[in-house]
Design goal:
heterodimer; A: 377 residues; OB fold (Dihydrolipoamide Acetyltransferase, E2P); Rossmann fold; 2 domains; eight-stranded mixed β-sheet; four-stranded antiparallel β-sheet; 12 helices; B: 335 residues; alpha/beta; seven-stranded mixed β-sheet; five-stranded mixed β-sheet; 14 strands; 36% helix
Chain lengths: 377, 335
């Protein structure tokens, strides 16, 4: 079979349809596997679709601007040996239902909400697509985020391990009670949730605030954490933008929130109306305002982050820090001065796992494989 | 997030606010149901089941069945609000508010102003609006323009289950009298609604479709129809921006003017007769404040200046339809 369907991808659990923003390849052009062929807008963010195989883009079925459900056929890849009739037959016989079913089967992702010490904790669990999974990976999002921010990463990392993405206290579907709002408190809550899931040894990828929580957890219980990847970690750079933190808290309308969220991306065009609307919906929930305020004044306070930074060198677990080249939130002046291994992600702001998902996915997967070590189960 | 109907979303808003604040209570006809009768308690929950289950949790002192005397319901509600409670009155059909205009217009709407700001009136008046139910001229009106023109009242018209819950919670927490209008054709509309409580501020429009060729402003059921028209016209290459202001008073004129500045064209859709309607009001305000941005005359799509007909085929012609909205949009972009 040398015909390949190009379908609307499913990025994250909530995605039901996608808008084809633009084709990046002309009909008749030859593409390599993994090459960017089309750009999509989901209800959250835009991203590029990579060619599922090498071949010639024989047919572009969807037009730019079309909205199609997840799994819908938008194009056909084939080699030169297939005639047009074969492509026609392939298109006519294509069943969306089977693709959707296949995607649901292959990505056994579920969202659960449980009580940990009486407080709701919501998390996403993506089962490893292998019979002998390596050490599980826990994802901790940043300030104002939730588990849905990992939609471009979770499936890539679940190739060889279970991936669990927690909504931190004060966020998403978890409790809005953040206690005193200190990093140590958040780390203790994460620890209690790990206990509830019987996860005694994990890798952590933390973004921004999540990276600071990961570091705090590693300082408190080093035996539990096998490695840390800090994506634009709070406390891992020189400064944290107070304009962003205060702007995010203060914005009471979508119009006010837009310029704040645009600070997160190298390409502000990625910020969609739906992304802003879902952030506003989160901010309107009872208790969120107080939770964000407490986190801003405690966990993300300059002295707290300075103290964390002074302790980073004491962390005994393998650590990799990734920075966005165009990050305006966690700024870095001289990365060469950092005593911990680090890398810069090009063409990305504060959200490299969204803006440069492919590069981040590969870098993180490689780092995790390196540190799975002999404990592979 | 969970899918819920508009009815469930409203019920959840009432329940969560009643749990949060013991001052919140409900008054209306059959809001508990079965009062004074043998048999099933709590069988009814209002004419369309919005308050079902509340009397079981909160009892008859907080879910109060009232006699069929709207003036008494509204008078008791205004008095309870003035005395420090946060009552929610269920008036069933908005058409019945006509018999309690004094309580609303002369009393509730004036307390804060006439008592020099020393009194607040935190009351909500829920009522069903709109046509499509073949219910004739006395049970099919919207009447939101009347309430909108009275200073001292706030007027809310949700178009989705998400908005319905967040706006009703805001209405209950608001210190002024709020007229909360639910379209009777939308109670079974499904949508994503968070389980937790949240409040949507008044006077903040929702841009439900983004577009560059023409701005359409519509409320309640008409917002849903405007969205359908926008989706239809997108296939014809017309890019329509749809704005649902969510509240007619306060009105988010800024968002409307910003949009008209980009598109240069405006269609206002209002399920009400044309004279002194929201369509007339918004068209006038945009003409006054945004005239220099307009590339074509403003068009409105409304009901005709007649009572709502009982005949189903006539009622379908009477209410603004997706086709009529689309035709107006095509016309305004052709100029």
């Amino acid at each position: 079979m040398t015909l390949h369907a190009i379908c609307i991808p499913k990025w994250g659990l909530a995605m039901e349809e996608g808008t084809l923003a633009s084709w990046l390849k002309a009909e008749g052009s030859t593409v390599r596997q993994g090459e960017d062929i089309a750009e999509f807008e989901t209800s959250k963010i835009a991203n590029v679709l990579e060619a599922p195989a090498a071949g010639i883009l024989r047919r572009r079925i969807a037009a730019e601007g079309d909205v199609r459900p997840v799994g819908a056929l938008i194009g056909v890849l084939a080699d030169a040996g297939e005639d047009d009739e074969a492509v026609d037959i392939f298109v006519a016989g294509f069943s969306e239902a089977s693709v959707v079913q296949e995607q649901q089967d292959s990505s056994t992702a579920i969202v659960e909400t449980i009580l940990v010490d009486g407080l709701p904790a919501r998390f996403l669990r993506v089962r490893a697509r292998t019979a002998s999974p390596a050490t599980p990976l826990v994802l901790l999002h940043g300030f104002g985020g939730d588990h849905m921010g990992w939609m471009f990463n979770q499936d890539a990392w679940a190739a060889d391990r279970d991936v669990l993405a927690l909504d931190l206290p004060g966020h998403g579907g978890s409790t809005k009670d953040v206690g005193d709002g200190e990093l140590a408190t958040l780390a203790a809550r994460v620890s209690a949730w790990l206990d509830s899931q019987r996860l005694d040894r994990i890798h952590i990828v933390g973004h921004s605030l999540g990276a600071a929580v990961a570091a705090s957890l590693a300082l408190a219980s080093p035996a539990r954490v096998k490695s840390i990847v800090a994506l634009c970690g709070a406390g891992f750079g020189d400064t944290l933008s107070r304009d962003y933190v205060e702007g995010f808290i203060a914005a009471s309308r979508r119009k006010e929130l837009k310029p704040v969220i645009e600070m997160l991306f190298a390409d502000p065009g990625l910020v969609t109306r739906d992304m802003l609307e879902s952030l506003m919906a989160y901010k309107r929930i009872d208790g969120v305002g107080d939770a964000l305020r407490a986190l801003a004044e405690k966990a993300l306070a300059a002295p707290a982050l300075a103290e964390l930074r002074s302790e980073l060198a004491d962390i005994q677990v393998p650590m990799l820090a990734l920075y966005g080249a165009a990050d305006r939130i966690v700024t870095i002046s001289d990365p060469a001065a950092f005593p911990w291994p680090h890398a810069i992600v090009e063409a990305a702001g504060h959200m490299p796992h969204m803006e440069a998902a492919k590069a981040v996915n590969e870098q993180v997967a490689g780092f995790l494989a390196l540190h799975d070590g002999s404990e592979r189960r | 997030m969970t899918q819920k109907s508009m009815r469930q979303a409203l019920n959840e808003a009432l329940r969560q606010e009643m749990r949060r604040d013991p001052r919140v209570l409900i008054l209306g006809e059959d809001v508990a149901g079965g009062a004074g009768c043998e048999g099933e308690e709590d069988a009814y929950g209002g004419a369309l089941g919005v308050t079902r289950g509340l009397v079981g949790e909160f009892g008859r002192t907080r879910v109060i069945d009232m006699p069929i005397t709207e003036s008494a319901i509204m008078g008791a509600t205004a008095g309870a609000a003035l005395a420090g409670l946060r009552p929610v009155a269920d008036l069933m059909f908005v058409d019945f508010l006509g018999v309690c205009f004094d309580q609303i217009f002369n009393q509730a709407a004036k307390f804060r102003y006439m008592f020099g700001g020393k009194a607040v009136t935190p009351m909500v008046m829920r009522a069903m609006i709109g046509g499509g139910f073949r219910a004739g001229g006395q049970h099919s009106q919207t009447l939101h323009p009347m309430f909108t023109m009275v200073p001292g009242l706030k007027v809310v018209m949700p178009s989705t289950p998400y908005d319905a819950k967040g706006l009703l919670i805001q209405a209950i927490r608001d210190d002024d009298p709020v007229i909360f209008l639910e379209h009777k054709a939308m109670y079974d509309l499904m949508g994503e609604v968070p389980d937790e409580a949240y409040a949507i501020p008044f006077g903040e429009a929702n841009v439900t479709r983004e577009g560059t060729d023409v701005t359409v402003v519509a409320f309640s059921l008409m917002a849903a129809r405007a969205n359908d028209a926008a989706d239809l016209l997108r296939k014809e290459g017309i890019s329509v921006e749809v704005i649902d202001p969510r509240t007619t008073s306060p009105l988010d004129l800024d968002t409307i003017l910003d949009s008209v500045e980009n598109t240069g064209r405006l269609v206002v859709v209002d399920e009400s007769p044309p004279r002194c309607s929201l369509a007339a009001d918004i068209a006038a305000q945009v003409a006054e404040h945004g005239f220099s941005h307009l590339k074509a005359p403003i068009l409105s799509v409304t009901c005709p200046h007649t009572p709502s007909p009982f005949s189903p085929s006539l009622e379908d012609l009477y209410m603004p339809s997706v086709d009529r909205i689309a035709a107006a949009i095509r016309k305004v972009v052709s100029r």
